[in-house]
Design goal:
heterodimer; A: 224 residues; mainly alpha; 10 helices; 0% strand; B: 126 residues; Nuclear Transport Factor 2, Chain: A; five-stranded antiparallel β-sheet; globular
């Protein structure tokens, strides 16, 4: 058990932090929602009702979609794009899908390679692109969830202002939908660009995301 | 593609249940029926507190609500329900309701559409 925790500490710690922060978001969101209820002259809603509301749903989903978009793009584009001096980048001459030998597929697979790396056809293609595909699918699913919860939350607001509710397809053209979406996208893209640049000159000793402290600023594709 | 979210909503059980829709439209019709029956007390009981207070600003609510020229209860054309808010469209009136501890209450009635702007309502909260 102890060994399991130690060997999986990165996932476990982030998983637990995620749950704690999600609960804190729900608590603060519930308080904010009930403030609005009071302003509207309505009674407060229970915590259970809030966490199953469209309002909470859209707030959660809009952040999820942007995070998964960030990782989807990052996984996909770092195959082709490089940044001189950044440990986030491959070496300058390695841009692209690389050779089968480099990727240990087909005849170059070793005894520890996943089975689908050894076989050809769609299974190898699927394994070769599985990380990007899963990130991309979770992004699309979260974005769809954002739009569905978003239109319900938007319509609740519309009705509270004595205005007509709108349909899902019309909501997709509303500034509210795109504002929620783009404000998250811009921050994710900024974070990636910052990480790629900062890690050229800055170090975090011992981190897999940093070059070794003594590595040259020009060294590319070197992780600590 | 447009059908998919609606299907997902239904599968997830997120769409309002028919019983909730009936409760909303029932509350709207009961309020208008009370006005038509000249039962101002019942009509005011079915108003949201802030709406009842606004109606009863000059005269007592049970008297004032009968003078608001609200249309009689007509056939329900449509009901929309999102979270704590709902809209009931009748053949000749539109009402807005909100959910309170003791059920759905009318926040605004006698409402006329003004397009993108909020409805113009004969009866509404302050």
């Amino acid at each position: 058990m102890r060994r399991f925790v130690k060997e999986n500490s990165l996932t476990l710690v982030f998983g637990v932090l995620f749950l704690i922060v999600l609960v804190l978001q729900a608590i603060s969101g519930h308080a904010g929602y009930n403030q609005q209820q009071l302003t509207d002259g309505l009674p407060p809603v229970s915590f259970g009702r809030y966490v199953t509301s469209a309002s909470f749903g859209v707030d959660v989903a809009e952040n999820w979609q942007s995070e998964y978009l960030q990782f989807f793009l990052y996984v996909l584009l770092t195959a082709w794009l490089v940044q001189k001096g950044s440990p986030e980048s491959k070496s300058l001459g390695e841009a692209g899908l690389e050779s089968d030998q480099d990727q240990k597929v087909g005849p170059y697979a070793d005894e520890n390679s996943p089975k689908w790396a050894r076989v050809g056809g769609p299974r190898r293609w699927l394994l070769s692109n599985s990380l990007g595909l899963v990130m991309g699918l979770i992004f699309l699913g979260s974005w769809l969830a954002q739009s569905i919860a978003g239109v319900a939350a938007y319509n609740e607001q519309q009705l509270s202002r004595l205005q007509d509710p709108i349909g899902w397809s019309k909501y997709l053209a509303e500034p509210e939908f795109w504002n929620r979406t783009l404000q998250n996208w811009q921050s994710e893209l900024l974070a990636v660009a910052s990480m790629a640049i900062f890690s050229i000159y800055l170090r975090q000793r011992g981190s897999s995301q940093s070059k070794p402290v003594g590595a040259a600023h020009t060294a590319t594709g070197v992780e600590g | 593609m447009i059908v998919l979210p609606a299907a997902l909503l239904t599968l997830a059980g997120c769409g309002p249940a028919q019983s909730r829709l009936d409760a909303v439209s029932g509350a709207a019709v009961r309020m208008l029926q009370a006005v038509a029956d000249h039962d101002g007390s019942l009509a005011c009981d079915l108003l949201a507190p802030e709406t009842a207070a606004e109606v009863g600003k000059d005269d007592p609510c049970p008297k004032a609500i009968l003078d608001e020229n609200l249309p009689g209860p007509a056939a329900v054309v449509g009901t929309e329900l999102y979270g704590q808010w709902a809209q009931v469209r009748l053949a000749d009136d539109t009402l807005f309701l909100a959910h309170f501890g003791d059920g759905w209450k009318v926040v605004a009635a006698g409402c006329t559409s003004r397009g993108e702007r909020p409805y113009d309502c004969r009866v509404k909260g302050g």
